[in-house]
Design goal:
heterodimer; A: 196 residues; mainly alpha; Rna Polymerase Sigma Factor, Chain: A; Arc Repressor Mutant, subunit A; 2 domains; B: 119 residues
Chain lengths: 196, 119
């Protein structure tokens, strides 16, 4: 826990200063999780504010201060879902944005402004983004929380409010689908190059 | 029982291939927790305040609407529960009253006849 229970209780009681302190303590971590969940740096702060806005108006529904972190993660996951669903509807504009990013990156490479390490990192990020884009939003979020954020099964049970077996089934299926997508995605460049 | 154990082992057993795990780890490294911008907190409070004000005005409207609805219900109840004949002079009268009001001379004759008979 990044804050003590008294502070959470105080914020639940309507103390805005206490709420402000909670946001200050958690915002960096939450923004990091959001950036890896949605993969769009320019929208991270907006989604982050949405998470804390929802937290502010739902704090009175929190049963005890002990479950604060899973509660906050749950709000984060829900806000990320909402964002990803909205983005799906704007898929075409997203594709044009991506190509614009690629053009900027290509220009930077041509101008010698980007190091090899940076380029490798960008390639890796794009590859994982494409991999996560090729599964459903539910799989994307679950896999990111488990495999990228490193949440334990126990923590995920609290976030998703399901029992261990149900969670394992979801995870099993999500892993199957991402392995399949990985296979397809890995084949694509070889096909484009005409290599068998 | 054996099937259940096999299924459970299968669920526990599916790990991601090393390549994918490495990709995810590299993704984690490539995307460290970002520093929030200077406007993060002020913008957040603006959003909270605007929603809070919106909620208050909606709440105020809802309360007023409920009050008006309750008052209307009471007024309608009183109106419908009050017997109609008590308010109307026409329906409050008996048949004989109405008849005598319409034909005052006949009633006077009848009274006269009755008086003569008793004599």
């Amino acid at each position: 826990m990044l804050v003590d229970f008294e502070l959470i209780e105080s914020a639940r009681g309507g103390n805005d200063a206490a709420f402000n302190q909670i946001v200050l303590a958690y915002r960096k971590r939450i923004l990091g999780t959001i950036s890896r969940l949605i993969g769009r740096p320019e929208d991270v702060e907006d989604v982050g504010q949405e998470v804390f806005l929802r937290l502010y108006f739902s704090l009175d529904q929190l049963r005890t201060a002990e479950v604060f972190e899973p509660w906050l993660y749950r709000l984060t996951v829900n806000a990320a879902y909402d964002y990803l669903r909205r983005q799906k509807r704007r898929h075409e504009s997203r594709m044009s944005d991506l190509s614009e990013q690629q053009v900027i990156m290509a220009d930077a490479v041509a101008g010698g402004k980007v190091s090899k390490e940076e380029l490798r990192r960008t390639d890796m990020k794009e590859f994982v983004d494409s991999l996560l884009d090729s599964v459903s939003e539910e799989d994307r979020v679950l896999l990111t929380l488990k495999e990228v954020e490193g949440l334990s099964l126990k923590e995920l049970e609290q976030v998703y409010q399901v029992n261990e077996n149900a969670l394992k089934v979801r995870l099993f299926r999500a892993r199957q689908r991402v392995i399949k997508a990985f296979g397809k995605l890995s084949e694509t460049p070889a096909k484009l190059r005409g290599v068998d | 029982m054996a099937n259940e154990q096999r299924n459970r082992a299968e669920l526990d057993g599916l790990e991601l291939p090393a390549e994918i795990r490495a990709s995810f780890a590299a993704y984690r490294e490539a995307l460290p927790d970002p520093e929030p911008g200077a406007n993060f907190m002020p913008q957040l409070w603006v959003r909270i305040d605007s929603q809070r004000n919106g909620t208050f005005s909606f709440g105020w409207l809802a309360k007023r609407f409920v009050s008006v609805a309750v008052a209307s219900c009471l007024a309608m109840s009183i109106l419908f529960l009050t017997p109609v004949h008590q308010m109307s002079p026409i329906y409050g009268a008996t048949y004989l009253d109405a008849l005598s009001a319409d034909h005052p001379d006949d009633v006077a004759d009848a009274d006269l006849n009755r008086s003569i008979e008793t004599l």
